[in-house]
TrEMBL record:
InterPro entries reported in the protein's UniProt record: Bact_Transport_Assoc, DUF418
Domain DUF418 per the UniProt entry, residue ranges: 226-380
UniProt protein name: DUF418 domain-containing protein
Transmembrane segments: 20-43, 63-86, 98-116, 122-139, 144-163, 206-228, 240-263, 275-292, 313-331, 337-356
Domain of life, per lineage: Bacteria
Amino acid sequence: MNEKFTPLLEKDRTMAIDALRGFALLGILLVNMPTFHSPFLYLDSFTYWPSSMDQFFSGLVELFAQSNFYPLFAFLFGYGAMIIVERSQLKGIYFPSFFARRLSILLIIGCIHAFLIWNGDILITYALTGFVFILFYQLSGKALLRAGIAIYCIPVLLNFLPLHSQEHFGENPNAIQSSIENYSNGTLIDILKQRATDWTYMNFEISAVILAIGVLGLMLLGAAFAKLRWLVDVDKHKRLLIGLLIVGLLFGLVARAATSFSAESFFLMVLQEQFSGALIALFYMTSIVLMAQTKIGHKLLQPFTYVGRLSMSNYLLQSIVMTFIFYSYGLGLYGSISYTTGFVLVFAFFMLQIFISKWWVARFQYGPIEYIWRWATYGKKPTFKKRKMQH
């Protein structure tokens, strides 16, 4: 490899994309928080947190965050991958082999995260799905768009095949007790075993495949948006973005509300799970991109950009800090706080991430994990500190 990528200059960064990454990290922490501090995988939240306050905040997360942010992050992964495609072509670097190296390092990071830090990792899925993405990167923007939509719809059909039991999920008192004992009082070995058990439960049978197919579709959609420059040439595509915003909001809320009125319909439940999150994510994405074009929007979104520029490091930092707070090798508070307390903790910690990230990006080219990822990919130590302080 004769040439390497240099860090994106400030003028070349798309502010809205960094803001979207930061916003997605806030949403991901909101969704992940109950799993950090409780046996959320195995419980019924209505009986576990019966207070009206807990139910109120749980309902807010269910409506505005649940299943809305992993689609956004997967979309952004595909968007970023296409930026790498474009930069590799300019540098004369063969994208498939370069990207495969990046994905291999990401897979290692994901495995460390999933089995040594927290079981709810998504990086393994992104890494494995990314290898399939390589088969599609040469398609045109419109072809990527069509392929992304078609592939994203496949899990709807798979859910109707007799490949897995609908009874897999549900309240499990024994699993609840085991989780609380192991995470709040267990040894490191106990926690390691429980983490592996939880990861296996989350990725049982066909569910991991269904998730990966959906993620691939979202990655292709992100790549399509990048190739078509819809989020860069905003003035040129403003009517389209406003239309997508309206579609995302209206149809997303309709799909989200559908199961509330027909909770026993498996068909509606599948549609809701597959489409409401992606549609609401579309609404969030287009809203932020359009907001970033205004002075007040730019100012409001600026704090999210600091977090978004260090997205990998901040994602892992959330897991490291939260497991320290709740697991026995740290403060051991697992199973002892309410849903409301966890909800408040999300915003308190995210504010801290904003301040830390702002300080960091003023001094360093990359986040710590991004730096290691880059070093491992190239096999050559990149420049870490910025030459001049930027304010």
